Amino acid sequence: MKHFNLILSSIILAIGMFACGFDNGGFPENVKLSGKTQEKTVSGTSYISGPMQIDDLHNNRNAASFESETEDPDSLIVTLDWLTAKAKRNENKVTLITNRVPAENESKELIVGWMDGNEGISIYVKYN
């Protein structure tokens, strides 16, 4: 499963970085969060069909959420360190939540991503 997550994150990033006419599905490419429990909902023009994941490229780690891992099969929830991303299947918005202040050894830049058809959507989330 770990290899699948790394492959999926590589594909999402590669498509996101090199796609012609890439518009990130209408989602912002960068989001800044601060505070212990800040919540920000961002939306775009593409729809989330799942799975969704968070990548920490600085420490080569990731976390993925599949619909079967949640209580509600239409909910996608994934957490890595200080960041949680929540979305509903077939909706065009994602809620980004800081769970706590990042520890000194944790990356303050994480990437939330998913595939929409052939397009990889990547939102770089930075903790200030």
Describe, in plain words, how this protein is organized in 3D:
A hairpin with a 2-residue loop joins strand 8 and strand 9. The strands form two sheets. A five-stranded mixed beta sheet has the order 1-9-8-3-4. Strands 2-7-6-5 form a four-stranded antiparallel beta sheet, with no helix packed on it. With 128 residues, the chain is mainly β. It starts with a helix and ends with a strand. It has one helix at residues 2-18; strands spanning 30-33, 39-43, 52-56, 61-65, 75-80, 83-88, 93-98, 109-116, 119-127. Helix content is 13%, strand content 42%.
Detail the topology: elements first, then pairings:
Blueprint lengths: L1 H17 L11 E4 L5 E5 L8 E5 L4 E5 L9 E6 L2 E6 L4 E6 L10 E8 L2 E9 L1
Report a brief summary of the structure.
With 128 residues, this protein is mainly beta.
% residues in beta strands: 35-45%
Q: What shape does the CA trace take? A: globular
Task: Return Rg in Å.
Answer: 13 Å
Parts with pLDDT < 50 across at least 5 consecutive residues:
none
Global structural class = mainly beta
Spatial strand arrangement across the major sheet: 1-9-8-3-4
- What does the average pLDDT come to? 83
State the end-to-end distance: 32 Å
Biggest sheet character: 5 strands, mixed
Order of SSEs: HEEEEEEEEE
Number of strands: 9
Percent of residues in helices: 10-25%
Q: How many individual helices?
A: 1
